[in-house]
Amino acid sequence: MKKELDELLCQRYPLIFADRRRSIKESCMGWGFSCGDGWFDLIDTLCERLQFWTDRNGAPQVVAQQVKEKFGTLCFYPREANQTQRGMIYMAEALSARICDQCGRPGQTLVHEHWHMTRCAEHAPVGAITQAAFIAQRKVPGIAP
């Protein structure tokens, strides 16, 4: 994620990203946000809701340990969260499979040279196939999934 967007999230949600300036030996947040700019709005909305739930409902203070892309979807790892907050995180992670990680427009999870990514048609690499097609290609005949 661009430095400006990284800083904006940390400015808006200092309690959630309290570990952002720690060394990578202390917190994976030291690496920053390991995802594309297209998920900025998704992460911003998630953090707004998480902080609202903490402030208004006495929920635990979520502190992000790591925010990254993995297998084409967002992974948001909190230090502590209650069941409702975890539901918010799971929903954002699921939505990321439908949002281009580069621009934020509608997308789908694709595979290109074994790399999984969620992209719109404009940002999809030439030769990328859907995740479902990739999985179907890898199935071995005669072996149950």
Task: Describe the structure in your own words.
The protein has helices at residues 3-12, 40-57, 83-95, 131-138, and strands at 33-34, 64-70, 73-78, 108-112, 115-119, 129-130. The radius of gyration is 17 Å and the shape is elongated. The chain is α+β, with helices and mostly antiparallel strands and 145 residues long. It has a domain at 3-99. Strand 2 (64-70) and strand 3 form a beta hairpin. The longest helix has 18 residues, at 40-57. Keywords: Plasmid.
Provide keyphrases for this structure.
about 140 residues, alpha+beta, 3-stranded mixed beta sheet, about 20% strand, plasmid
Q: What's the end-to-end separation, in Å?
A: 36 Å
Characterize the overall form.
Answer: elongated
Low-confidence stretches at least 5 residues in length (pLDDT < 50)?
Answer: none
Rounded average pLDDT: 94
What structural class should be given to the helix and strand makeup? alpha+beta
The topology string of helices and strands comes to HEHEEHEEEH
Number of strands: 6
| Annotation field: number of helices | 4
- As laid out across the biggest beta sheet, the strand order is 1-2-3
The biggest beta sheet reads: 3 strands, mixed
Strand content: 15-25%
Radius of gyration: 17 Å
Kindly report the oligomeric state of this protein: single chain
Could you give a quick summary of the protein structure above?
Keywords: Plasmid. By secondary structure, the protein is of the alpha+beta class.
